[in-house]
Amino acid sequence: MKRNMFSKFAGSLLALALVFAASSAFAKVATVDIPVDSQMYAQAPQPLTPSQCAQCHSYQFGALKEKGGKHRFACQECHKAFHAYNPNKGNYAEIMPKCSQCHTDIHGPANKDCATCHTNPHTPRVVKVTERLTNSCATCHQEEKAELVQFPSKHSLLACSKCHHTRHGYKPSCQECHKPHYKGQEYSSCLGCHSVHKPKKVTYKSNEPAQTCGSCHTKVYGKWTKTVSKHSKVNCATCHHDKHGYIPKCEECHKAPHPAGILKHYPRCLDCHLDVHELPGMGGKK
Fold this sequence. Notes:
It contains 13 helices and no strands. The protein is an all-alpha fold. The chain has three domains: 54 residues, no CATH class; 76 residues, no CATH class; 78 residues, no CATH class.
């Protein structure tokens, strides 16, 4: 009887010892002992500099460097949370900066979907020509739209993206579509006469080369270049000033070239001087 009781007691002690040993094993929190370095955490770390961020985010740094525009400042000005993305939470949109942190609705309340056009905040001014963008050109470019409507031309029939393709702000050369008036003509000379959104409204300065005029007015230009008169030294735009198609009066330059008696009988210069582009040419009334 006593032996049985002792056996039971010994068995209970053995069970308790096994339970204690097992619980002690699972209570361990590490398999190695790493000493605490309190000095490491004595000071708060300084924010990373953009060059330090670039050690991992080289693409974003390069984009900001080359085409970042006014976004070239410390990364922390936009990014407040670092390495906080959790795929289980799907919190990417939550931790990414919002345009509204700095920008108001600069394109109006109907255009709040910034990322549709400004697809990369690290290159904010590189805007691809998308359907969303081309449908909204007149929101900002109201003057250009008004000119296309007020001064109809073949340009008025084209979508903005036909000329301003590839990206927002792209200004094409006229010669992408049009042949030059003469060989070797520079693109800049086109804009001296033609405003791109009202190309048929031709204006020019008095020093516009006569060769430009001669590309269309070939017959007159041919006469003018061969005349022995002083008119050969006068640029076309000097006489035909103000606007295309302007026909000057001789009196603008020649006040009273003949005695009063002659002018009385022949008040119109072209009655005698038949062709101003091929002087001297003299004729008379019959």
